[in-house]
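Figure-free illustration: sequence to structure, shown twice.
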Amino acid sequence: MLITTAAFGASAVLGQSANSPAAASPTVSPTASPIASPSMAPTPFAVQTLESVLARVRQRLFTPEVIRGRVGIKIVSLKTGKVVFENDSEKYFMPASNMKNFTVATAIEKLTPDFKFVTSVYADSRPGADGLLKGDLRIYGRGDVTISTAFNNGDYYKGLDNLVDKIAAAGVKRVEGNLVGDESYFQGYGTPQTWEWNDLQWYYGAEVSAFPINDSAVDLKVSPAGQGNPCRVVVSPQNSVMQVVNLCTTVSAGGGNALQIFKAPGKSTIAVSGTLPVGDKFEGYVAVSNPAELFMELLKQRLQLKGITVTGISRVMSPDQKAPAAQIEIARLVSPPLSVIAARTMKASQNLYAETLLWTLGEEAGRKASMSGDSQAMGTAVVRNFLNAAGVLPNSVLQYDGSGLSRHNLVTPSAIVALYRYMANQSKYSQAWLNSLSIGGVDGTLGKRYMGSTAAGSLRGKTGTLDQVSALSGYLTTAGGDQVVLSIIVNGVADSGSRKALIDDIVLNLANFNGKIDQ
């Protein structure tokens, strides 16, 4: 819906959950596309009263499938702040990926939409006229998440090749030394302490790294061979860092699928066991422990394919090793702007990107403001300070990570609504924020929801999903033309379908409301 109210400035546009691999992320433009407005033609039904709509919403909370759970709701007018409806809006709820709202909003506000990640290449001196570089070539990573299949049309190597092209353009043809990965930019343990161990082997539990190659995950494909034979296991991209132990056996078609996949936290061995029937298969994304090692191995391969010889080994600096002080930067790779990365983070609900943004806030805003601690702790402090300045009530957000995968996070629906109102009405970067949100029936985690309904195209927001948790927060334009901010969080309902149905019923009741809220 095209909006020209002062709430978003002139001609602004209104409109998960750890549940989508970044490799499947939608292509996102940093500029919002106009959204079709609900038809303003006379409707075939009488103008509804707000009271009747809210009565249906209230009644829905007492249906048998959700009554044992907890539902937090806050709905307010975007323009005036008038409370339209609320239920336990000041109580704590586990937000799932709605935690990304706070991380990404702070990143947009404090780093700016134009912020770019930089990967630097250092050496003792510039290469000679013959392309010879004596000494080590040191790569200094700063968490560029765009060196990834998700930003390069699924190509495992294009992101690295962009870096290789920069090294070649600097005149390097032969390195008489080692290829060294320096990951000292970030400080701290790459995995939040409150994440559950069984999440850590999958892409959505990937650890933060200064070198997040291909989202710090590898593709794993398991397929049957002949009956009684070992299964076929393929890891892509091929590498020597991730090892596979294949104990999986092919059984006859219709036999039991008892496939098991296990990678211990902090280890680089994928154990594939059990049975897989003929005609069946498995495809998934397994997290890489110590992604810098994979980055450096693949980088050396790509340099050699480019004709650049490295006589030594590829290795990663130990945490206590200091970089040579006199080295100079001979090349650098610069990422797309944060506005693009923010949209990829929010629309696909990409956990690693959110965590990396939190750590980057710690280094770029926290450390530069003389904060102390590791990258995550400083980033969390930066978020907290921004929320206080934005008018979010103190202690209404308890943050334990950047993405929402931690089951320790607690927020109130009121805090999310306050953030959304600030970003729409007061932030000078409101357009970048709007562009980062999923559009109902169009893209991201809302792409297949509300299709064909009044909410399609008139809702922009962020979903969230964990075991027993579903959430949706965002901006909605009603059939009557009013704009509301809403946050709905459901906790303690085991069936995901019931949680989602409750949220969708509330949204559609509001979207179909053809009366006036702001009167």
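We now fold a second protein in the same way, so the two outputs can be compared directly.
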Amino acid sequence: MKTPRFLAFHVSLIALLAANAQADDSTITTPSTTPSPPIVDYQVTAKKLDQAQNGLSTETGTSSYHFNQENITDLPMGDQTSFNQVLLQAPGVTQDSYGQLHVREDHDNLQYRIDGILIPEGISGFGQTLDTHYTDQLNLLTGALPAQYGFRTAGIIDLTTKSGAFANGGRSEITVGSHDTFEGTQEFYGSKDGFNYYINAGYDYNKLGIESPTSSANPIHDGTHQDRMFGYFSYVLNSDARIKVIMANAVNDFQIPDNPGQTPLFTVNGATDTSANLHETQNEQNTYGIVALQGSTESNIDYQFALFSRYSDTDYRPDNLGDLVFTGVAGYINNSSLVNGLQGDASYQLNDTHTLRSGFYISNEEARSNTDTSVFATDGNGNVISSNPFSIQNNTSKAAQLYDVYLQDEWKAMDKLTINYGARFDVSDAYVDASQLSPRIGAVYDLTSSTKLHAGYARYFTPPPTELVATTAITKFNNTTNQPEVETNSPVEPERTNYYDVGINHQLTSHINLGLDGYYKDIHDLIDEGQFGSALIFTPFNYTKGRAYGTEFTSEYHQDNFKAYLNVTAERAVGTDIASDQYLFSQAQLDFIANHYIHLDHDQTFTTSAGISYKLDETTYSADAINGSGLRNGFANTTHLPDYTQVNLSVAHVFNTPTTGEFDTRFSILNLFDEVYEIRDGSGVGVTAPQYGPRRAFYVTVGKSF
């Protein structure tokens, strides 16, 4: 079910033909019996439907952070900034290796939506499926969420796409620079008689695909090829309804970087290897498609119904000789997941003070895990008795279903007080069958014209990611080099959380906005994830109990052409007693954690993000920075890595010449001071490999719109 790489070219070609056809519209005669609607009517209709779509959701009582196109363009890498790097500029977002993010001390547990439609999660990997190039608005919601948000609740990342509704044209962009980087992006957009489209295709090659296991500026065996395609199409049926089609595909190939100087532990029929000469690779594919009907009725009802499908596939291919020599285990792993489902949302303005919202979600997932693991035979004491390896296969599959319904009321209780209350009922039918009724309440109070208070409570139900849960027949590996020390393998349970959030926003002056937010989470069956073994695929497990709490300070300044922001977060997350997948841990770890609350491996006490930008005529100067006090390491996460700061900057300029017309350029420097810092050191619960942050790098971007 692989998607050929040349499909990216096909998408670009289709878009080019569509653009050319649009440019030649003057040669086509439309019959007088079916006149085209005036474009102004279409624009008015599209804007009205956009407003109705926005009305399906509410942020009452939540903590929210917003990025628009201008905010993204002002970042040092502009539209070439990866999706995760944009989110790192928001409060409460912590950097980790392999493209991971932690929002408010959760491991993953992020929900992605496009135009309000939930995108089923894919198998976690290094590559990015979503892209900033087609982002018109990006909203991050955290805290006590309204009842319409469920399953993945650490953060709601809601992306509003660009479209061709109000413009016709396209844009070409190329970036070159350090690590042999070449990244090209092509987009086309346009509209005709109620139909509009936006198509984006991108390709990326570089030699820093994932974080290096060493401090070297030039990692060994770390190349990547990445293809991305995205298409948005909509057609206005009438003044009250439209159909939307969204399609995307990402195919990412990664080399796993080598860590030279490691000591061989085994031989394969007398043969050995060097750790600087391994050839491990990982291929990832994520594909999804959505068909949605969105509109309004004369009875003040707004609605959106969406059919969706997503296919996700990850292939890890080991270096058979090398992995056996250094770890005694070489495992080929293929994980795949196919999800189909239906989502419906509706809102009804009952009167001037009450707006009712309700909806449902149904999905079916077919998850498969196929492994072929080469090992050595051992005796009863764990000693290798043969240097001739043999393979053990373990193939599993699981069908899993998720269901939910919700109902909520947004009540304008007073001129200054808005309350949103409701509940949702979630059902998970997977490796563990479970359900929960989850009440929610959130409120916003206008203390003054410049000061707003918000507070909320939410009960959360978070099933483990089915695509990452695989029933491992651990007894198959008895008397081999892959035999676990512990043979207990309890199933992963859904996480259940009581979440409290309170915050204040204050407009200090017309140019300065300040915010302070605090949260507390009381968690049962806390879900965490770890990377166990050589394959860089994460596996979930439970702590019986957990707690997480923190405080976020936000500030922003905007006057004329100068902008600045500063976000500071202090937080803590702990858990006790490993309650599932115990075979992944040593007996010493299990014994210690059973009697102690330990820091989660991704717990970082202090996190800071900051940025400035200034536009002078046609030149924009930008800089941003992230600082972290260090993720946890050591036995049972009892210590933490040193703090670090990474500073990036850029200069962007728009040229306009008689020969070339208008085009824009950008010169960027990442990690300006070339700070060497470790994100991971290979120790800690569920951490087996070191990763360093990127060294100083230089990039040049040239773009032209048409």
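Summary for the second example: Residues 7-705 form a domain with the Maltoporin; Chain A fold (CATH 2.40.170.20).
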